[in-house]
Amino acid sequence: xxxxxxxxxxxxxxxxxxxxxxxxxxxxxxxxxxxxxxxxxxxxxxxxxxxxxxxxxxxxxxxxxxxxxxxxxxxxxxxxxxxxxxxxxxxxxxxxxxxxxxxxxxxxxxxxxxxxxxxxxxxxxxxxxxxxxxxxxxxxxxxxxxxxxxxxxxxxxxxxxxxxxxxxxxxxxxxxxxxxxxxxxxxxxxxxxxxxxxxxxxxxxxxxxxxxxxxxxxxxxxxxxxxxxxxxxxxxxxxxxxxxxxxxxxxxxxxxxxxxxxxxxxxxxxxxxxxxxxxxxxxx
Length: 284
Hints:
Layout: H1 4-18, E1 22-28, H2 39-46, E2 49-57, E3 60-67, H3 76-79, E4 86-92, E5 98-102, E6 112-118, E7 123-127, E8 134-139, H4 155-162, H5 169-174, H6 184-194, H7 207-226, E9 267-271, E10 274-278
Antiparallel strand pairs: 1-2, 1-6, 2-3, 3-4, 4-8, 5-7, 6-7, 9-10
């Protein structure tokens, strides 16, 4: 599943390529799973709007949309209904979703569930083989996600999120209601750099350890964003390029391989149904 660095990479790529373009119309497939809002609601909110901005919120990609004013001078009564209105088009990529800007003549994948036709002549396509992704719309400013952005949080607030919780620290980091955007890969990598085992209970972690963990989370996320994210399975960015941070993984996916620091074999355990990787010597 794309995590914060992958979603941030896609959002930045889309912002560079489609900001200012106009969505002339949107086609939606027949599969119901991807539609969190109805097809009618999505079309009504999106058709004929200008893409004012593209940004990430947690693991969501948010398109801020503006409706163009009418070109000719309207009557006073008509003017009241022609003022610029706005909405948000929200995309969650799920486990296998991708958003790509394509030329209209490019072959359409059989797993394409939405195509936004742009005034520039290009198409914005949402492809999702497993159909865990979601498409929805909201009025501008209405959409928000629970949790705090890990790249923006300060130490005191970070400690307040977790202190006193008996939850395992790995599970707590994956709780999107607390900290949004951190997933399995980056939780493992951050815990390794902080020297904390994933099965430690949050209530047992000291202030100094929390400080190391927060610094590690920010460091790992920023490094991953700089390298375009981690391409573990089928993740690609907005122009179809893979990320490179998987080449920098120190524990994730390295079960049985030697720790890059102490040469102890990396272990894998399962926490709440998710694989967790750690070094039994470097992490306490």
